[in-house]
Amino acid sequence: MREQAWRLFAGEYNETTCKVEGEGDRDPSYVVTPLGAKVNRLYVVGVLTNVEDLSSEGEMLRAHVSDPTGVFVLYAGQYQPELLDYLAHMDTPSYVALVGKSRTYEPEEGTIYVSVRPELIKEVDASVRNYWILEACRHTKKRIEAVVEADNMTSPSVDELKSLGYDTALAEGIIASLSHYGKIDIDSYYSLIKEALASLKTGDINTHSHTQEIEEKILGLIAKNEGDEGIPWEKLVKKGIEAKFDKEVIEKTLESLMDKGLIYEPQLGRLKTA
Amino acid sequence: MVEENNFESDLDDVINALDEDIDRSELKKKLEEYLSYGVPLDQAKNTLIKQYGGTLIVSQKKNLKDVQVNERGLNIVCRIISINPKEIEVKGEKRKIFYGFLGDETATRTFTSWKDFEINKGDVIQITNAYSREWRKEPQINLSESTDVTQLDPSTIESVVRSPATAKIIDLRGGMGNVEVTARLLSLEEKIVTARGKEKKIYSGIMGDTTGKIPYTSWKDFGLNENDVITVTNGYVKSWRGAPQLVFDENSQVEKLDSDKLPLQDIGTSLVSISILIERGGGADVMVEGTVLEVIKDSGLIYRCPECNRVLKNGMCGTHGEVQGIPDLRIKAILDDGTGSLNALFNRERTEQILGMTLDECKQTAEEVMNPALIEHKIIDNIIARPLQVTGDAFSDEFGLTFLVHTVHMLSLDITKQANDLLKELEE
Q: What percent of the residues of chain A are helix, what percent strand, and what percent coil, each to the nearest 5?
């Protein structure tokens, strides 16, 4: 039986830290997202933003596909010559439909990064992308509801979720997610859907999200106060709180800005824009 | 209030369950106290026994209709209506379990026995210390290692109430027994079959309700006509050619309803998710919405053997060698809705619809550029990533679920309204 292609946003997929290895040689492996999607294959329609050659002969390409909530990282290798060739010659940015397999990378014990190995890429138009966003919203909402149901059970089980009408794959995913992630922050995923839907309403391809807005404001705060030596971490957090941001949000935003290389620490505990 | 003598026998129960000698009046005082707080008698007794370190007594005999989900210590007197062995694997070990139906004067329930109690169909038994679980939204009786079974005189239960499960067609699954279905007979044909050396006339066709359609077979002449609206009681569901089929026979009842019921236009093909279709093992005339994620090789312009209709490879038929092939169009594609995937087969007409080209036009175009694969590329361009709604027949085989497409409809990509509706729903 062919594995189904899950519809899910990068904002959910990239939070994944749970891996389920197939037991036998031929059993598929999965990653389980916080909302219980037990993903072996996924289907995404988004914006191909860039394609990089990781080797000199074009045997390994890295590409990024963006959706309203985040970015999928793709690695295509030498065993897919046709796909490599197609991908290497694609215009960026362009809308693409992507079918791929979930992949994980563990640089050290306990740290997992997820990526996608593409099986099929096809250029599409904006309407196909919009349709996908709606579909991904619906599927995400269903998973959130399943997590809530499981949370309400005294002893959540696959059978009990199935008796509520959830299919086996999702029921198994939810149970695996609960034991791996513990309490799930439901609200943040509801915001994810709302952001995605909002991007449809405005028809804004740029998907200027709430998160991006906060990032820009924090970045502005740093730029204004950094001087030559950078602004001390605590001072910035204080300024952020004065600007009515949560401490947690500020810290998360700083991490994200750091990851994106937009800020750095000239010395420990001080922040400066790059 | 609880009557005095009831009470005495209950106290006896408690004292019998205790290892130590406990003062009767002390127990009585405590029991009365619990009862005055509205604690149910069974619970009050078991609480006392627990307090004094005795072995729990099982609750009083229950009628099946009163059994709820997740009860323990069940005590039931019932008749075994059916019992079947089944091999399952638990933690890598093979185990033999039994399942079937049991019933008493009040209800019929499914059961699972995790141990071989050497019970047979028709036995009337007393079951002590069983438990119940939920199965298809109903309580199911479970017999475990710690359950006791005693054979009783069969006359203990004169008749078992058949409480058929009223089902919609979409919910029917192979293996279900004692179902009640109301449907319209969309087609009917008579067939003579040989069963156990005897010729027998059977009646079969397709029936439908508002949720879907299903093939049926009647082993008895109920005087049925096409377009009759009937309620079948005590039918059962078989898996036939990889899809569920409703069967009824001399043990079933058929009631004809007013022909205004279930008008033809309400008989539908309701939309199902692919995961449900896979779980169901297929279905007749079902509707699915999904996206084509792959077009499988040998789609497009193909040539068939004039003798056996098989698709030629390099102009050769596997059986008949080099032949003059007959051109045809078809698409084999993977359709996926995020819950599951299936192999969709589009015939010539449906392929022409998707391509917007006739077979002749396809032949001409392919000959002009001398490349029959051109049509396959056109199909890939037109169909991959395109959300579709299809209706057709689905059945399971070694490759998973195969879907013969009857109608195909490109879904509108204008989703503004749906997006707004969903946003509103979320903001409430």
A: 40, 25, 30
Residues 6+ apart with CB under 8 A from B300: B329, B330, B331, B351, B362, B372, B373, B375, B376, B378, B379
- Rounding to the nearest 10 degrees, give the CA dihedral for residues A152, A158, A161, A165: 170
Joined tokens for residue B106:
């009040």
- For residue B57, the surrounding DSSP H or E stretch is none
**What pLDDT, on the 0 to 100 scale, is given for residue A3?**
94
Residues in B closer than 8 angstroms to A5, CB to CB, are 293, 336, 338, 341
- Chain A's closest residue to B402, CA to CA, is A1
Q: What are phi and psi of A71, to 5 degrees?
A: -130, 130
- pLDDT above 70: percentage of residues in chain B: 94
Partners of residue B416 in chain A, C-beta under 8 Å: 200-201
Q: What is the pTM of this model?
A: 0.65
Tens-digit pLDDT profile for residues A160-189: 898 888 999 999 999 999 999 988 899 999
Per-residue confidence (pLDDT) for residue A228, from 0 to 100: 83
Q: Which residues contact B13 (CB under 8 A, 6 or more apart)?
A: B45, B57
Domains of chain B, first to last? 4-51 (no CATH), 64-156 (2.40.50.140), 165-264 (2.40.50.140), 274-410 (2.40.50.140)
Comparing B90 with B119, the larger pLDDT belongs to B119
Cβ-nearest to A194 among B415, B420, B426 = B426
